[in-house]
Amino acid sequence: MANKTEILDAALVALRQGETLTLDSVAAHAGLTKPGIVHHFKTKGALTVAVVERLMDLWELDLNGRVDDNADARARLRAYVEFAFTSDLDPSDLALLSDARLRDKLNELWIERLAPWFGEDITADPVELASIRAARLLADGAWFDRALGTVDFSESDRSAILTIALELTERTTRS
Predict the structure, then answer these.
(1) DSSP secondary-structure letter at 57?
(2) Per-residue confidence at 75, pLDDT binned at 50, 70, 90?
(3) Number of other CB atoms surrounding residue 99 within 10 Å
(4) Can you tell me the mean pLDDT for 74-81?
(5) Pick from 100, 113, 94, 169: nearest CA to 138
(6) Whole-model pTM?
(7) What are the helix (H) ranges across 93-125?
(8) Which pLDDT belongs to residue 174?
(9) What is the CA radius of gyration of the chain?
(10) Quick count: other Cβ atoms within 10 Å of Cβ 48?
(11) How far is CA 140 from CA 40, 121, 135, in A?
(12) Most CB contacts within 10 A, which of 31, 93, 103, 109?
């Protein structure tokens, strides 16, 4: 019998292959019956939340591997920008958009788990904060695009945009 992590990984495979996240699709990928999935996740909503949490666990593993234990907010933001531009992302990375009824709950979860990587606590200076937010928005756009595969940038174009985003993370108004 598959454990919870194996079931969640099977759900990510289903999403990766363009399938809708359902108890049946996850059961098929996990080699279980629908009651076998329900044994671990009582509802589709509970499964969806757990899938998003598993996805964020994987993202955080990657992000934490990009910084040392004493990383400051700017280093964490740079790690997020690099992650968004260089990680292997696919449709499963959009799991947080998979159920409109859970949008608020999944958005709160996203903010709670990933806010430390967005650089919002670097400065109160409005100009510097605008640069930090611009870098974050570039990274969010890269993350979304890479997960959907909608724009076919060359590696040199992607690298040039990444350089701009990283430069924005370093922009300060201090002299």
Answers:
(1) H
(2) very high
(3) 19
(4) 96
(5) 169
(6) 0.90
(7) 103-114
(8) 62
(9) 18
(10) 22
(11) 32, 18, 9
(12) 93
